[in-house]
From TrEMBL:
SUPFAM superfamilies per record: Periplasmic binding protein-like II (SSF53850)
Keyword line: Periplasm, Signal, Transport
Sections of the chain in a coiled coil: none
Protein name: ABC transporter substrate-binding protein
Cellular compartments annotated: Cell envelope
Source organism (scientific name): Plantactinospora endophytica
Source organism, top-level taxon: Bacteria
Length: 488
């Protein structure tokens, strides 16, 4: 859920940038400030000048000036107001219309609550949006139902295979067809109070020995090692769990489990969960389980910024909150890749989370305009940078070139996404539960992970049930494609 304390200029170094509270793109982003999703429904048929073209010609090879019609776009919002809609049009509609001047839009703000169900109901009735916002739990069912258009022709024409990260292309394939495109991505990292570390002369940990050394020094100095807490978003425990699975079991083991080669009851996963639980019981996370459950985001972030806590395991979406709270404290923060916590598990690995994903409605009456919008998404870098700077949007899953960044983008944001980009190209990537484990396992995790911390559920029993839920979805073909990793 969104943090009750809205952050300021998301990735900008400068203060005073007006941020708007739009749709939270995932419940896993408690500190994401501004975002929205959109669904586009065709109101007007393609102009008659397209008559006589083949299906492939109509969908992929029409010059921009010959694509027209009106697209009715559903814009998912947390708060609906004129300023928000004006900002959306300026950043996401007007740049597209510069390239496709004959396409018009009718924007309809929608409440985020229940938007996916509303879209699904419309699609089942043969209607619905032209451009479909997706998450991993509905991508495969939507594709199986025949709702999603084949994007293979667009990918070939735009040479996406050479431009887009391999994992992003892999995750969008269902039944050997490319039907989904991630349009933003994130990772899990170790944030830390840089001022505190430098003052104490502590080294940023890269392995278990270094991590437990700095933990011991922090506790001796009366500093709580990790700021994490989940009072405002109960599911935040899943962020920590995903980190430990990658740090202890490692991406190679996770990939093997996702492909059905080993069960999630493998000892490497038991070790991951037991180490996480042990760290909680020792009070390393916010001073203890009770404090972890009761500390709101405002206090959590303030304690990290003022040096009462030293580190924070979380995702790229936290950068805006880090900037705001650390500016108030006068201290500096930084980030590092997750450390390796077990022998043979590689470090400098980046677990990948999908920010947003889009698909095209197979029943659309305006496929040229719908597919043109996806083309534009992956080609207009200037518009993307502007959205990153102004409202904290995230990069596309393409090679990240920091040299194109406009003035004012936080250099730590640039360094983080440069590192993720490099890791993506080298396949030094890992996995997060909410993207890769399937809907049934995800549901079980969210409902039961805190019982691990209270001692009401053992690691083995927890993983036995995760494995059962995963296997059910796996046997029914409902697990998203497991992108390849070289981090073994």
């Amino acid at each position: 859920m969104e943090s009750p304390h809205p952050s300021a200029a998301a990735y900008s170094e400068y203060s005073g940038v007006r941020m708007i509270n739009l749709f939270h793109r995932s419940a896993h982003r408690p500190h994401r400030r501004t975002h929205w999703t959109s669904a586009v429904a065709a109101l007007t048929a393609v102009p008659v000048l397209l008559a006589g073209c083949t299906a492939a010609d109509v969908e992929e090879n029409v010059p921009p000036g010959e694509i027209g019609g009106t697209l009715n776009m559903w814009v998912g919002l947390d708060t609906v107001d004129d300023a928000t809609m004006a900002e959306y049009k300026r950043l996401y509609i007007e740049p597209f219309q510069k390239q496709y001047p004959n396409v018009e839009f009718k924007l309809s703000p929608q409440n985020n609550e229940g938007l996916t169900a509303k879209v699904q109901t419309a699609l089942a009735a043969g209607q619905g949006p032209d451009i479909i916002p997706l998450n991993s739990s509905v991508a495969i069912p939507f594709a199986e139902a025949g709702y999603l258009a084949d994007l293979g022709g667009v990918a070939e024409q735009e040479n996406w295979k050479e431009k887009i990260f391999p994992w992003a292309m892999d995750i969008g394939v269902v039944n050997d067809k490319l039907v989904v495109m991630p349009v933003s991505y994130e990772t899990m990292v170790l944030f830390y109070n840089k001022t505190l570390f430098e003052k104490k002369g502590w080294q940023v940990p890269t392995d278990r020995a270094m991590l437990e050394d700095v933990i011991a020094k922090m506790t001796a100095a009366g500093i709580t090692p990790f700021a994490n807490a989940n009072a405002d978003y109960v599911g935040a425990t899943e962020h920590v769990l995903s980190c430990f699975l990658n740090m202890v079991a490692g991406p190679g083991k996770i990939n093997d489990a996702l492909n059905g080669k080993i069960p999630f009851t493998d000892q490497a996963f038991v070790d991951s969960v037991e180490m996480m639980v042990d760290y909680f019981r020792k009070g390393y996370f916010n001073g203890g389980v009770k404090q972890y459950f009761s500390t709101p985001d405002t206090q959590k972030m303030a304690k990290l910024a003022n040096g009462s806590t030293g580190m924070f395991l979380s995702g790229s979406w936290e950068i805006g909150g880090m900037n705001e709270y650390f500016k108030e404290s006068g201290n500096e923060w930084d980030w590092a890749p997750l450390p390796s916590l077990a022998p043979g598990v590689p470090g400098n690995v980046f677990p990948l989370a999908i920010g947003d994903a889009m698909a095209v409605n197979a029943a659309s009456k305006n496929l040229p305009a719908a597919k043109a919008y996806l083309k534009w998404k992956f080609s207009d870098t200037e518009a993307r940078w502007q959205a990153i700077k102004e409202v904290g949007d995230l990069p596309l899953p393409v090679k990240f070139d920091a040299s194109g960044a406009p003035e004012g983008i936080d250099p730590r944001f640039l360094s983080q996404y440069t590192a993720i980009s490099d890791a993506s190209l080298k396949k030094q990537v890992g996995y997060v539960t909410w993207v890769s484990f399937g809907a049934a396992a995800e549901s079980y995790l969210l409902e039961n992970e805190d019982r691990l911390l209270t001692g009401d559920l053992s690691a083995r029993d927890f993983l036995e049930n995760v494995n059962k839920a995963f296997k059910k979805d796996h046997d029914e073909g409902l697990i998203p494609p497991a992108f390849e990793t070289a981090a073994r």
